[in-house]
Write a structure and sequence with these properties.
There is one protein chain. The chain is α+β, with helices and mostly antiparallel strands. It contains ten helices and 20 strands. It has three domains: about 45 residues, no CATH class; about 80 residues, Dipeptide-binding Protein, Domain 1 (Dipeptide-binding Protein, domain 1, Alpha-Beta Complex); about 190 residues, Dipeptide-binding Protein, domain 3 (Roll), CATH 3.10.105.10. Helices cover about 30% and strands about 30% of the residues. Strands 1, 8, 9, 10, 11, 14, 15, 16, 17, 18, 19 and 20 form a twelve-stranded mixed sheet that branches. A four-stranded antiparallel sheet has the order 4-5-7-6, with no helix packed on it. Strand 17, helix 7 and strand 18 form a beta-alpha-beta unit. The longest helix is centred in the N-terminal third of the chain and has 44 residues.
């Protein structure tokens, strides 16, 4: 009896499918298409609804689509790799990688669960960094191989650059909802976060810090970022009601006192070392970092020798340099970026105690000719600083020429073994301290001011 019933049910189901199977598949397909279409339109139109929260953010600068702030890029996409706090490289879009024994080929194996904001699955064909002197092979859908002409150990840090399709379609948590251009420059961008249902509108056309602050005070912006200070006219934003202020540290820039080592006075190695001992142990404008590399970097884990202020020892070295004029005075000129003028004055007051007269000049950018320049340089996530200090590089604004440093920089950018790189850059820091082309001061503070 039980067997008979099972056969009956089977025959009924079979007959039903035979009679209505095409209709079932047809309406299932229509239902699936309608679901996907509805999901797409809902994700778009929800950004237009009035209950979606919107934050208007302003920053100073002139940006093109090829040079957007990192603040925005990090929101809308990611790279093959990412940088950890200590500067080491971690997987991101690529779940792993392999490096050829000769160090000239890098194979990246992509995660298969990565999707662009338009819903398309990311594959090797979507990755196009446009590197010069690098050939690319895509063995399969989720593998990409870069063949370099020479060893270059910072390459893993290079591919942290975010990946996009045309129209700024990325794989981050935010998608570009709208972009407004003024010629070649980006005037504003709107990003939408589906996760917290919030729109971030970035206003990128403010030419000066003062114009940005005025816009916030007038209520045109709900947030302003990357401020070097919170002063406003005769007061500060701290006195404003319903305003939140966050103080942060920019560890991507290192404020530095650059010496022109070809200058008649600054060519003295002894004088430069003596001036190092005059530097404050703390700076009000930032977090002290007296090395060319970050104290947080994995190459600094063994510790490095640093100078602390010692005016007595500084005087001994400065006197030994025999740079002083007949009246026992030294005359120096500091060109400084406007935002670091107060730091320049503090340094000048310290030098005055040692019979050094200092003239301060304001420079809007790196001057073509200078004796001392108080500015900053972008600190790469990789410890490689070849372009800054190697004697044959045009970006070596100090005209530094130290063959031992040259060799260490050459070796450092070719060495793949992490422990050997740590040793190389420890040596680099040791020898650059003994013959300083610059004094490394601090990571600058910056402020974010927003409406509560």
């Amino acid at each position: 009896m039980i067997i008979f019933r099972k056969r009956l049910i089977f025959w009924l189901v079979k007959a039903y499918i035979k009679r209505w199977g095409k209709n079932i598949l047809y309406f299932f397909g229509i239902g699936l298409f309608a679901f996907l279409l509805l999901n797409f339109f809902l994700s778009y139109f929800v950004t237009l609804l009035p209950f979606v929260e919107k934050e208007t953010i302003g920053m100073v600068g002139s940006f093109t689509t090829d040079d957007l702030p990192q603040e925005i890029l990090a929101k809308i996409s990611r790279g093959l790799t990412k940088i950890a706090k200590d500067g080491s490289i971690k997987p991101d879009i690529a779940e792993k990688w392999r490096i050829a024994p000769n160090g000239k080929a890098y194979a990246f194996y992509l995660r298969k669960d990565i999707y662009f904001s338009d819903g398309k699955n990311l594959t090797a064909d979507d990755i196009n960094y446009g590197f010069s002197d690098v050939s690319v092979i895509r063995p399969n859908k989720y593998t990409i191989v870069f063949n370099l002409k020479d060893n270059y150990s910072p390459f893993l840090a290079t591919v942290t650059r975010p990946i996009f399709k045309k129209g700024f379609i990325g794989v981050g948590d935010y998608r570009v909802k709208k972009i407004k251009l003024n010629g070649n420059f980006v005037e504003s961008m709107e990003l939408y976060s589906k996760k917290d249902r919030k729109i971030y509108e970035y206003q990128l056309f403010y030419p000066t810090m003062n114009s940005l602050k005025i816009a916030f005070a007038l209520g045109e912006l709900s947030k302003i970022i990357n401020l070097s200070d919170i002063s406003f006219k005769n007061t500060t934003f701290a006195s404003f009601k319903n305003v939140k202020i966050e103080k942060k540290v920019n560890r991507n820039s290192l404020v530095t006192l650059f010496f022109n080592t070809k200058d008649k006075i600054m060519s003295s190695k002894t004088l430069r070392e003596g001036l190092w001992y005059t530097m404050q142990n703390e700076f009000f404008q930032g977090e002290r970092n007296s090395s060319p590399l970050s104290a947080y970097s994995y190459v600094s884990q063994q510790g490095v020798n640093t100078y602390t202020q010692d005016l007595e020892h500084a005087k001994l070295l400065i006197d030994k340099s025999e740079i002083a004029t007949k009246d026992s005075k030294i005359f120096l000129t500091i060109d400084t970026l406007p935002k670091y003028e107060e730091t320049a004055k503090i340094i000048a007051n310290t030098w005055k105690k040692l019979n050094i007269n200092t003239k301060i000049r304001i420079a809007k950018e790196i001057p073509t000719s200078f004796q001392i320049f108080l500015g900053e340089f972008k600190l790469s996530p990789d410890p490689d600083q070849y372009t800054l200090w190697h004697s044959d590089q045009i970006n070596n604004i100090t005209h530094y020429d130290n063959k031992r440093i040259d060799k260490l920089l050459e070796d450092g950018r070719k060495e793949l073994d992490m422990q050997k790189r740590i040793k190389i850059y420890s040596e680099f820091q040791k020898y650059i301290f003994s013959d300083p082309p610059a004094l490394f001061l601090f990571f600058p503070y910056y402020y974010e001011v927003s409406v509560k």
